[in-house]
């Protein structure tokens, strides 16, 4: 009897050894806290199992071992039950982790803390899983499962605690397995447990694990419907049952449930895919995606609008009325919107033209085209428009009917015929006019004439001499719209044909005068509209071809008060040309006076004079200055010129030379008022040529309207038969400089220009 009892105990002991190894394998699994078990199961804790195990062993000692077939069936059934329970526990744990993560994010958002929605990824165990893991488990920290030892150990295992203090519950298979399972079943069970059990902590994103993360784009997230479909039908039905109920209370472990029904509400809170309803007064939590997108779009727009308005107020002042703001916006945006200048032709035809007073030089085959002929030529090419800006209009001699006004009369007749050809004629002339006979007659034939009261705006006059034809051709120079400028006064200008972009830029300068002489004559707009902005400047010159030779060209204007955006200032342009010279500077101008000529009190104005002295004395540039002598020359001009000559003495030895040009006159010609003078206003250096409309004293650059043109062809390839504009201007200057009409100025001369007035007022 005793022998039989000991034999019956041996299988039980072997079973206990194998069971204890299995139990030790399961209990030593590192369980990360923060888990709610969805459905409570009636099972005992470790404290209870200590006593029950000892009692079961004593009973089994007196009980006979069951048959082998019954042991195998019992072991298979219990293993199957263990797998089902483990599957459910795993799915419920994952759902509980996801729910807890969402609750944590909601609480952080309510507290004003935004969490990153980019999940952290950690490498999984290397053992291949027979059952594919759910994507949700990748966001958690994997559990490191200890492999079963080779020898059976004690049933007593380490008791890890949850983070809330609840003990880890015992799996159902730990007590129910009373017989030793077959080896193949045991290995299969251990493999499945090792590969499928992955308890993780929700929301754990330690910084030290970032280096082991998998890129988030390598894992395709699974939404809740897909996750639900991937489970068994029993799990889905069970979730549907518990999702209809709500529960409140602290997180408790599964071992604290005494009945499955008691934990139903808590399980629903953890496993239901539908968020529980909130009280009526609860604040709803919105996804930060929409608000972030709205902030991303609206904030830059608001900043741009605020910055644009601030810049507008900074440059042009605060609008005083809605009407003024509307007018400003219309000028600034609408008038210049979509305004694209026509492309320039490949080769602009340019001619340096001049008027030579009767009897000054004998005609020759090499003589340049006269200004009168160039005007007539431009009028013959007119098809749509002719715009003229002038100081005054006296193309006909209405007093004495002098025969030398024939060229002026021809030009006047051509202007009268423009309206019958369908060509628009617009004339912007300085106000007030001393003689309105010509402009009134042209207006009667359909021309638009505006007298521009610039004196009310800047205290100066419109001294510009500018023609623009069809937005393609233009003339710029020193000649007024006066019959004397065509036959009795020495003038120099530039005629440009088939050069649309440069002509359009000149037309914009005309547009400034036309705008000032409009409905609000004598007042400036809040700012110049975009359609009048400069198309060329010293910083951005136009790159063209003048008679086949590459050139960089730009227009300048004065005074700054009426210069549109981007327009180079005329005085600054002259100073830059002087500073750019390296070998020589040759200037031909009627008046040169470093004073304020027409304003009180008298002021010293050394801008140009200082630049010339610096060029001659510090950079050793050869400076030659040709000025006019007639009865309207300012007498104060000559002492300043003589002071330049003093610089030639040792030790300075500055290379400066000054000559006075006098146009001879007969007794009959002396009777013609404001004639017989060198009225040219240009400068040529070894690098560029400048042609302007202003005399060189302060008021012409600070109050009076004028225009300048700079042509730079330095370094351009000049083929046979071609000639640069700079070379043409240099030849013209040398001809006058070396002529018999140019006399050298002496430092000791007391009466350089007999008959010169105290102040001249010839424009």
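^ structure tokens above, recovered residues below v
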């Amino acid at each position: 009897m005793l022998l039989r009892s000991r034999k019956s105990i041996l299988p039980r002991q072997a079973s206990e050894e194998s069971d204890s190894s299995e139990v030790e394998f399961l209990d030593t699994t590192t369980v990360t806290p923060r888990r709610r078990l969805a459905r409570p199961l009636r099972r005992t804790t470790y404290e209870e199992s200590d006593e029950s195990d000892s009692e079961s062993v004593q009973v089994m000692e007196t009980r006979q071992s069951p048959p082998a077939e019954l042991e195998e069936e019992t072991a298979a059934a219990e293993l199957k039950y263990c797998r089902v329970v483990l599957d459910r526990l795993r799915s419920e744990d994952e759902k509980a982790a996801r729910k807890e993560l969402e609750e944590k994010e909601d609480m952080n958002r309510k507290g004003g803390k935004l969490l990153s929605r980019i999940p952290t990824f950690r490498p999984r165990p290397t053992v291949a899983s027979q059952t594919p893991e759910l994507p949700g488990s990748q966001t958690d920290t994997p559990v490191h499962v200890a492999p079963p030892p080779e020898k059976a150990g004690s049933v007593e295992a380490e008791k890890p605690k949850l983070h809330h203090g609840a003990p880890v519950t015992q799996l159902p298979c730990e007590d129910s397995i009373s017989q030793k399972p077959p080896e193949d079943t045991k290995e299969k069970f251990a493999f499945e447990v090792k590969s499928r059990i992955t308890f993780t902590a929700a929301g754990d994103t330690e910084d030290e694990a970032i280096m082991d993360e998998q890129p988030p784009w390598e894992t395709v997230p699974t939404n809740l419907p897909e996750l639900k479909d991937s489970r068994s039908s029993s799990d889905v039905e069970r979730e549907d049952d518990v999702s209809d109920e709500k529960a409140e209370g602290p997180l408790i472990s599964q071992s604290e449930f005494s009945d499955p029904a008691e934990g139903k509400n808590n399980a629903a809170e953890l496993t239901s895919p539908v968020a529980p309803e909130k009280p009526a007064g609860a604040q709803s939590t919105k996804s930060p995606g929409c608000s972030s997108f709205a902030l991303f779009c609206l904030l830059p727009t608001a900043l741009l609008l605020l910055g644009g308005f601030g810049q507008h107020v900074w440059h042009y002042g605060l609008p005083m009325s809605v009407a003024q703001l509307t007018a400003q916006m219309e000028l600034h945006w609408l008038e210049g919107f979509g305004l694209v200048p026509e492309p320039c032709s490949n080769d602009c035809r340019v001619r340096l033209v001049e008027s030579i007073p009767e009897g000054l030089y004998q005609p020759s085959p090499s003589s340049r085209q006269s200004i009168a002929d160039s005007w007539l030529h431009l009028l013959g090419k007119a098809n749509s428009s002719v715009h003229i800006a002038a100081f005054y209009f006296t193309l006909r001699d209405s007093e004495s009917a002098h025969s030398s006004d024939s060229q002026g009369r021809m030009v006047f007749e051509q202007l009268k015929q423009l309206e019958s050809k369908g060509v628009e004629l617009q004339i912007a002339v300085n106000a007030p006019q001393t003689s309105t006979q010509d402009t009134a007659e042209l207006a009667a034939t359909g021309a638009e004439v505006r007298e521009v009261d610039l004196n009310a705006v800047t205290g100066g006059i419109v001294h510009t001499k500018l023609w623009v034809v069809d937005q393609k051709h233009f003339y710029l120079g020193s000649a007024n719209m006066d019959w004397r400028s065509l036959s009795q006064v020495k003038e120099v200008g530039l005629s440009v044909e088939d050069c649309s972009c440069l002509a359009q830029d000149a037309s914009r300068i005309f547009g400034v005068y036309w705008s000032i002489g409009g409905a609000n004559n004598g007042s400036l707009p809040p700012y110049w509209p975009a359609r009048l902005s400069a198309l060329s400047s010293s910083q951005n010159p136009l790159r063209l071809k003048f008679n086949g030779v590459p050139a960089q060209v730009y227009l300048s204007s004065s005074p700054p008060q009426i210069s549109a955006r981007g327009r180079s200032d005329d005085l600054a342009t002259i100073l830059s040309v002087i500073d750019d010279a390296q070998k020589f500077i040759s200037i031909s101008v009627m008046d040169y006076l470093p004073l304020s000529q027409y304003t009180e009190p008298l002021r010293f104005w050394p801008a140009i004079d200082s630049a010339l002295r610096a060029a001659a004395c510090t950079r050793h540039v050869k400076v030659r200055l040709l000025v006019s002598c007639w009865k309207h020359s300012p007498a104060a001009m000559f002492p300043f010129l003589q002071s330049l000559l003093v610089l030639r003495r040792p030790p300075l030895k500055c290379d400066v030379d000054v000559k006075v040009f006098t146009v001879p006159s007969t007794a009959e010609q002396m009777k013609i008022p404001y004639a017989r003078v060198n009225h040219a206003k240009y400068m040529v250096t070894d690098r560029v040529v400048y042609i302007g409309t202003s005399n060189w004293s302060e008021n012409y650059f600070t109050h009076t309207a004028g225009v300048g043109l700079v042509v730079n062809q330095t370094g351009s390839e000049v083929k046979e038969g071609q000639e640069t504009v700079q070379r043409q201007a240099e030849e013209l200057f040398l001809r006058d400089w070396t002529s018999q009409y140019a006399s050298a100025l002496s430092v000791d001369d007391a009466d350089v220009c007999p008959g010169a007035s105290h102040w001249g007022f010839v424009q």
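The chain has a mean pLDDT of 74.
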